[in-house]
Amino acid sequence: MEEIKLFNISENAGMVSINDEIFVSSGSYYHVNMTLIVSGNEGTIVDAGSDTPEGERVKSYIDQNGIEIKNIILTHRHSDHVRNIQTFGEEGVVVYEFNNTEDGQIIEMGDKKFIIMHTPGHYDDMHLSVVVNDNILIAGDILTSNLDPLLVVTYGGNKESWINTLQGILEKDYKLAIPGHGPIVEGSKVNKLIVEHIEQLNQ
Asked: Does residue 111 register a pLDDT over 70?
């Protein structure tokens, strides 16, 4: 039986658009993802991408549409997720990351609510994920749809912490996930990917 589609996913300005409010740009380094969330004329960036052309592409869209960036949220400080901070981090923009947030902290922007989840298991356990309006998970590198987690764990990862984090995420039953690397997953594929990660990390 075909799953009911909850999200309208399309291409827009070289990015993947989710319901015309969330835009995912992918950089050249292992399909690393940068996310722009828009509410009215305000925007929040989650992770700042890996290469300059990607940053310029997203900045061009922001400028052409009169969007004012209010927040930058970094899942972690690996270089492929922070390259374009200066491109978006103008005066007045608040940068949130593991060290200045609390687990469960809520950030509001217009009709959007971002829940910060501390998700240890990557980057020496200083890693967070973001939940948008309760049902969309911006996972960071705790979830990748194009990389083997046994490879990712070698970059400052901890298998036990990572498995515990994934088991907690599995219970939430998110309907769409934007991984740190790789294509977006939605519907039942989200939990399927999480289970596959757990199984691989248990090897």
From this structure: yes
